[in-house]
Amino acid sequence: xKPSVKFITAIYSDLFGSEFGGRPNRYWHYRWSLxxxxxxxxxxxxxxxxxxxYEDLKTFFFIxxxxxxxxxxxxxSDLNKNRYSNLINKYKDVEKAKxxxxxxxxxxxxxxWFNNEDMSYDYYFWIDAxxxxxxxxxxxxxxxxxxxxxxYYESNIFNNxxxxxxxxxxxxxxxxxxxxxxxNYWSGTVNPIHYKKYDRSYHVIGGLFGGKKELWKNIVxxxxxxxxxxxISDNNLYFEEHIMSLMYRNHEELFHSYSxxxxxxxxERIPDFDIIAHTKKNKSFYKIIEELNNx
Length: 295
Prior knowledge:
about 15% strand; three-stranded mixed beta sheet; 8 strands; about 35% helix; five-stranded mixed beta sheet
């Protein structure tokens, strides 16, 4: 019997400039990208959003694009009301958040939203709604047809073969993806005192992670514990990826990890930079998705 799978995601595309912060100009990006991710038809999805975007999202997915309401649930979640509110409000620099491109509330709620689930699926994964786009995927995996928005986000690479291999290879571990962080530096980390053995050579990304339902509670508890401990100790609110990177290094036995070197792919155009040579020497993010498309 085929295992059941559910993806948890979120679309809050109007937060830039607000107290929450977030990437600007993502309205169509998130919608077209999630529509493409729904090509994984053997999985169900739940998408959290604000009351401001709820009706618009229902129109886009259910009316304009005929998405099955049994395959995608759209749920309103108020970012002002979450288990991390007190911690965030105590340490958050609101003015800095207004011009930032990452929303801490959404980052942390990636774990808390799992607690809304009834555990009726065998596997749960978080996936960023905007993961399918031309900045991460080369042209060979993009439709490049239809209107401008759709063409640069619609892809055939997130499909049921990818889904099946993602589930099969995670086995009894919690799957994460980590970026090489020495030769191709991407991000700093938390204070080294929090590591059992300090190692920042890989930075865990928050775009895709998960595994068997039985594994989630322990991971969520670890995240909550480390987030609280590190925030108070360092007097700083870190991205969820910093906390996840710490979790990975301190508890590697819990995780099944995929790694890559660079975000760029061969169709990027960067002035005065040999992108072809760079991608030959370094593994692009999309190569992980490509490998999981192999039967």
